[in-house]
Amino acid sequence: MIYKYYYKTPDGFSDMLMTSDGEYLTGLWFDGSRGASKHISDCEEKLLPVFEDTIKWLDIYFSGKSPDFIPKYRIANLTDFRREVIDRMLEIPFGETRTYGEIAKVIAKKRGTAKMSSRAVGRAVGWNPICIIIPCHRVVGANSSLTGYGGGISNKVALLRHENNDMSKFTVPKK
Fold first, then answer.
1. CATH architecture of 80-169
2. I need a labelling partner for 58 at 20 to 30 A (CA). Which of 12, 13, 38, 90 fits?
3. In angstroms, rounded to a whole number, what is the distance separating the alpha carbons of residues 56 and 60?
4. Apex CA 151: angle with CA 150 and CA 152, to 5°?
């Protein structure tokens, strides 16, 4: 059985949908974002302990602090490469960003290869099913462009602003 629960975010953000297999958090998306709608059919809405932990984490985060724990999560179809990218995202501190290229360089060095594709990193970042907690919003383009956020650019901007980033250094792509 798959379970869902909704989280009411503070003003300036879309509300969030979380999913669970009953024990682990399996998804966290901004409502209406890419990927969210395909995960809510045939789900039972129920407040589970893992959702309570996730709500506590989100409450701390949205109060302007960096939570000191991560709710239990499980990600399906997790390849070694995706795990490496997630591990790098989890290392990005609250209020900081990294580029796709910077993450690619770290992974290439760890693997002992000359280089790694930043586009491959971008695909893995975009695939992330647990936003904010696994901070894909902190990954930006090489020219500080705020591209590639499945939760919507407005939410990415709001999250980076919420973390007190200097927004003057970022560019938002024109539609």
1. Orthogonal Bundle (1.10)
2. 38
3. 6
4. 90
* E strand map for 31-121: 44-45, 98-99
- To which residue do tokens 């990600």 refer? 75
Give the separation between CA 70 and CA 53, rounded to whole angstroms.
8
CA–CA distance from 53 to each of 5, 23, 50, 142, 145 (Å)? Answer: 12, 11, 5, 34, 33
Q: Which residues pair with 19 in a beta bridge?
A: 4, 27
Q: Domain map of the chain by residue range?
A: 3-62, 80-169
Give the span between the Cα atoms of 91 and 55, in whole angstroms: 22
Q: Is the pLDDT of residue 53 over 90?
A: yes
Q: How far is CA 171 from CA 16, 157, 174, in A?
A: 25, 10, 9
Query: Which positions are catalytic?
Result: 136
pTM for the full model? Answer: 0.91
Over the stretch 117-160, which tens digit does the pLDDT of each residue have? 999 999 999 889 999 999 999 999 988 889 878 888 888 999 99
